[in-house]
Each structure stands twice: as structure tokens, then as C-alpha cells.
Design a protein that fits this description.
With 313 residues, this protein is mostly helical. The chain has one domain. It is built from 13 helices and no strands. The longest helix has 40 residues, at 26-65. The chain is elongated, with a radius of gyration of 23 Å. The two termini are 36 Å apart. The model is unreliable at 308-313 (pLDDT under 50).
């Protein structure tokens, strides 16, 4: 099959997926939710920072009036300005992943309910191009949402008093959003996979949610010994010591490659300069590879639809 015969049906599937997301209002809803969440996170971060600065200034004035000569330096001097975005880590980790699962799940279930899956798979595009088109369409929509979040973040810094990012900080912020995009594409692929693999629509949505719970809460907890609540606090997690002992050491060695929630949080902390440290590109590659594997699994799961009548539980 030459490149033109591949590109044409692929573009058709991608365009159809994007049109459907727009027609159903999914894209506009996602963009609205994440734009609002971004503004809220920036406001909360800036408000917290401003309150801390005001408290420090008032404390300094009080101490000077009392004749105290030795005053500790401002604690925010060692904190990155990008730390005002730290709440976005939690929102992406939780809300973003769940919405990506729903989008991936709906993408195939929608076609299956309409009864067009066997017909689509009988066309020259076949299973690989069908799944590639689905994932590309979903990922383009997610990318546009992420770009919207970045624009909202960048513009908000221009209008917030005393908040100015350097060129390097803008690049770090862009890298944070790039990692967030890779994280969301993994869960979109997982949602699509179970939508294809499981005939029961409710179970097909529950299964990827259980996967999300496992990689965000259970696996990190088993490998670090941290309380689940601590896993949701990026600032606390950045300074939390790893649990010692033979069990946790063995669990880390086995489970760490699959603790995608923990990997995402560590990368986000790095790019937002909250917990600067060595950049682990392997974590990004692992997330991307997991998404590719999920997509490949979708191709194999589609075999039953190309040869038998579609069944809907």
C-alpha cells in the first residue's frame, strides 16, 4: 500500500473524529473546563504567594519595630515562580486523565453503537489505519486543549501584578504541558482499548478507571510507602523520603516502570522547578511507549469486529 493510499483514509478518519468531537460539544467542553481550571490554579497559586509575601513583610516590620536585627530571608526567594502552577499537576493527574479515558472510550463505543464498525473495517484502511486515525483525532483534540491551557497560562502571567516569567521559565512551562499531553494520550489510548476489547459498555468504562487508580495510587503507594493523600500533594511528595525495607525496595524495582502517575508528577515537578533534579527522559519514553502498546493492542482486539456481527451488551 503506497503512502497516498494510506494518507487519504487516515486523514478521513482523523477529520471525522474531530468533527464528531466538535459536533457533540466534547472539544468545546474540554477546552472550557481546562481553561477555567488553569485560571483557577493560577489565581490560587498567585493568591497563596501574595499572602505569604504580605505575611513576611508584616513580620519583618514587626520584628524591626521590636529591635530585632537578625531576620531570616524571605522563604519565597528560593521558590520558583512557576510553583504557582503546581495545582495544575493535581488537576491533570486526576481530572485530565479521567476525561481522556472517557473520550477514548466514547470514540469506539460511538461507532459500535451505530453498527458501522464491520463496514469500516471492510474498507481498504483496515484495522491499523482505523485505530491510528482514531488515536490521531483524539490526540489532536487533546493537543489543542493543552495549547489552549498554555496560552491561558502565558496570558495570565502578563496581567497578574508582580508576576513575570523569563524566557527560560516559559520554555519550562511549555515542557510541563508537553509532558501533560503525553500523560493524557496514554489514558485516551487505554480508554479506547477497553472500549474495543469489552462488549459491555459499563465495564469498558470501569476497567480503564481501575487502571488509572492502579497507576496513580496503588503502584506508587506500594513502591514508596507514601500515604495516598500525600501522592496528591506535589510539594509534599517532592520532599518525601522513600520508604526503606526489603519489601519497598523490591516493589520499587518491579513496579516503578509502571507507576506512570508518579513518573508524571516527578517530571511535572522538575519542569515547574519545584523539585529540580536530573531530567529522566526514560519516564517520558515509557509513557509514550505504553500509549503505543495500548494502540497496538486495540488493533488486535478489533479482529472480532472485522469477522463477526457487532454485539452490544
Amino acid at each position: 500500500m503506497n503512502s497516498s493510499r494510506v494518507a487519504s483514509p487516515l486523514r478521513t478518519i482523523v477529520a471525522h473524529e474531530l468533527r464528531t468531537l466538535r459536533r457533540e460539544g466534547t472539544f468545546s467542553t474540554l477546552l472550557g473546563i481546562f481553561s477555567a481550571v488553569t485560571l483557577f490554579a493560577v489565581f490560587i497559586g498567585w493568591s497563596t504567594r501574595s499572602t505569604t509575601l504580605a505575611i513576611y513583610a508584616a513580620t519583618v516590620a514587626t520584628l524591626k519595630a521590636a529591635g530585632v536585627s537578625h531576620i531570616a530571608p524571605n522563604p519565597l526567594l528560593g521558590v520558583s515562580t512557576l510553583a504557582i502552577f503546581n495545582n495544575l499537576i493535581i488537576y491533570t493527574l486526576l481530572v485530565g486523565a479521567l476525561l481522556a479515558i472517557v473520550i477514548g472510550h466514547r470514540s469506539f463505543v460511538r461507532d459500535r453503537k451505530s453498527g458501522v464498525v464491520p463496514l469500516l473495517l471492510s474498507r481498504p484502511a483496515g484495522r491499523p489505519l482505523y485505530i491510528a486515525g482514531k488515536l490521531c483525532g483524539i490526540n489532536v483534540a487533546l493537543l489543542l486543549v493543552i495549547l489552549g491551557m498554555f496560552v491561558v497560562s502565558a496570558l495570565s502571567t502578563l496581567f497578574i501584578p508582580a508576576l513575570h516569567l523569563s524566557g527560560g521559565e516559559f520554555l519550562s512551562l511549555a515542557a510541563f504541558y508537553a509532558v501533560s499531553f503525553v500523560y493524557l494520550t496514554f489514558f485516551a489510548a487505554i480508554g479506547l482499548l477497553f472500549g474495543v476489547y469489552m462488549s459491555n459498555e459499563s465495564l469498558a468504562l470501569l476497567a480503564p478507571v481501575l487502571v488509572w487508580i492502579a497507576v496513580v495510587f496503588i503502584l506508587p503507594e506500594l513502591s514508596t510507602g507514601q500515604n495516598p493523600v500525600s501522592l496528591l500533594n506535589p510539594v509534599t511528595l517532592a520532599h518525601a523520603p522513600a520508604a526503606s525495607g526489603a519489601f519497598f525496595s523490591s516493589a520499587r524495582a518491579i513496579l516503578s516502570p509502571f507507576s506512570f502517575g508518579q513518573d508524571y508528577t516527578a517530571l511535572a515537578l522538575h519542569f515547574l522547578r519545584i523539585s529540580p533534579g536530573p531530567f529522566d527522559i526514560g519516564a517520558i519514553l515509557a509513557l509514550a511507549a505504553a500509549g503505543v502498546v495500548a494502540g497496538a493492542a486495540c488493533v488486535f482486539a478489533l479482529q472480532k469486529y472485522s469477522t463477526t456481527a457487532d454485539q452490544i451488551a
